[in-house]
User: What shape does this take?
Amino acid sequence: MVAASAATLAAPADAAPADEPAVQVTIDSFGPAAPKVGEQVVIKGRVTNTSSVTFDDPQALACIDRTRLASTAALDAIPTEQNVPMNDRDSCRNLTNDEQTFQPFEQALAPKQTVEFTLTVPWKEWRINDHTGVYVVGVTFRGKPPSGERVMAGRARTLMPVLGREPLTRSVNTALVVPLRHRPTQLGGKNFANESLAQSLAPSGSLGRLLALGRQHKVTWLVDPAMLDEIRQMTTEYVVVGENGQTTPGTGKAVATAWLKEFEAGRARGNQIVLLPYGDPDVPGLVDSGDPLKKLVAQARTKTERSGGELAPGFTNGLWLEGGGAASRYLAAAAGGFPGSTPDDLNLVSSSSWSAATRPVLTTSPVYNVLTPGGTHRAERTVIADSSLTAGGPDPETAESPLQVRQRFAAVTALIAAAGKSTASVVVAPPRGWDSDGVATATLAGSLSLPWIKATDVAGVVAANPRPQETKAPAAPKTNGVLTESHLQSVKDLDEATTTMQDLLVDGTALPEVMTQALLRSTSSGWNGHPDEARHFTAIELGSANQQLGKVHLVNASVDRGLRKEIKVNLAGSKGTFPLTITNETDWSVRVGIVVTSVNRSDLKIRTPQTVVLGPGQKWTPRINASAEQNGLIRANAQVTNAAGKPVGKSQELLIQASQYGSVGWILVGAACALLFGTSFVRIYRRVRTERRTTAAASTTAGTLAGAADAAETTETTDTPDPAHDRPGTNGVAEAPDASLKEGVGSKDG
Assistant: This one.
């Protein structure tokens, strides 16, 4: 496994100046990992000519630094010689007394050419004593460039623990933490952004390889529960949403089902499960951003505590911090202060978070009470993983090679086993982003079979150290998050939309769970290194949240080409009302209000109506009380709000036409009305008096008029128009001027 994987993980043995021809030396296998005194060692690997020149008379040679290293501090102090020309590096002396310790190549080594080597080193050729300790050994390449003499053009080194005359006096309880996490891919429901999770779940993928470690070894799994939810969805039905919005059926149902089955089998075998905060959030980034993002840390922990019931009782609520993220302000904010927190929760921190001078001593116990002044508790029980166990080396370029990790782990634990009598405990946790394909972690798990190693889990280490000592938290820079500022702003926008939606609902607990999950997934530290996927994810989730908010809106009958136009209303008089209608097209009962604000005038006064509850599909039409002191067109915005007064969806533009008279105008209107009605009264009074007088005169001359009428019957007459009233004459007699009063007082004058 080491030989197969090193081909992809190996890096140049050492960096050389740009004008110096160099080759890449890679050690693919080294065995045994910890030889006993008298055992021979076999080293296999490759040499690749990375220069532009051809090397004549090439050869590979085993080498050793005969300085015995007896402490972990000595391992950390191994010189890298990075600034020394390759040919002048002398910390690893070549072995040439035995033909097995060096291998000449038959042909010259041309540019880009690769050749393999196998070196067998008899014990006596190391020329070291038989004391227990660690040595730096390796392989060098020598060849003759066109410039002249043979030179050392490449080198690769590793650590060789030797089991000598001093026996290992104690066993080392070792808890290997295996992270099972992946950046979010579920957009909501059955929609996924890509198939990267499915690829990782395959047996040859990183998650498939890491999960398989639980079959042969006792390990502690560090799991993101959001990833488990995604895998469960994949076992039923899911589709992949492309950039153009088109969907294709997901292809990972089979691998997701098999992975979950193996995960459950691993639980049954007793492997400890530690659940991270939901979504594995970027704790330092959220805390440094302050509110409202800081509260998402507690929400993620609460979500895990509640969703962990699916795994109860075999799970531990945990936290994983490293680097500057382990400072007391982050540990205090994330370790407590959320519903469901208990003293049994696991806080896992890497020892690399401390400087070498302030790092707690881990050879006695990895469990400490880390002081957190200002937090929920004075101190938080913390398990400190020994970062030196996964440091690899001694050359930085090959530190992450599976072989180098194995040899470093063997060397450090061997020194711990030889340094005391009481049982020692260590916790091994690979750093974030350290092992992208899981090969190095798998190699590390194989080292649990070393004779001085006793495999256990983190719970066993904690139980074996019931009285932790206190230590200060590591110092940290001002900011320590891994998410970019633009991504954090997107998270803020999504949080605001989600909070607005929750406040809109009459029952806030009815908020769709997918919205809460999406918000917490958007904070994932797994987005580090994947900015395009992060941007795509948050954009889709924000659009989905705004779509739900847009279902509660003002009804507008005026629509032009699918776009809602402004609502036009008239306001007659200094005070008036106009109706606005709000509709609820969601599946939940909501409490809504409405706020109208002027855009171009300050004299518009609106009385805000009280909020009301609208059931699914219901409408509400309040009458808006408004007043304006001046005539003219008023541009205003009508905004639907939730119970907290936050805007819901987009505002609607109003065009209010205010038509009213000023105070002077009303005085003139009143005077005109008084004059009109006063004049009419006088005229009506005079006409009534005239009518009464005319009636009395008519009674006195009745007889005379009757005789005149009889005489007129014999006389031939002709009707003529009445020029005064434009009416026909009556029997040749003109109509009296006030005769119209008989038709009704005021009928002529209106």
About this structure: The mean pLDDT is 84. The radius of gyration is 46 Å. The longest helix spans residues 663-700.
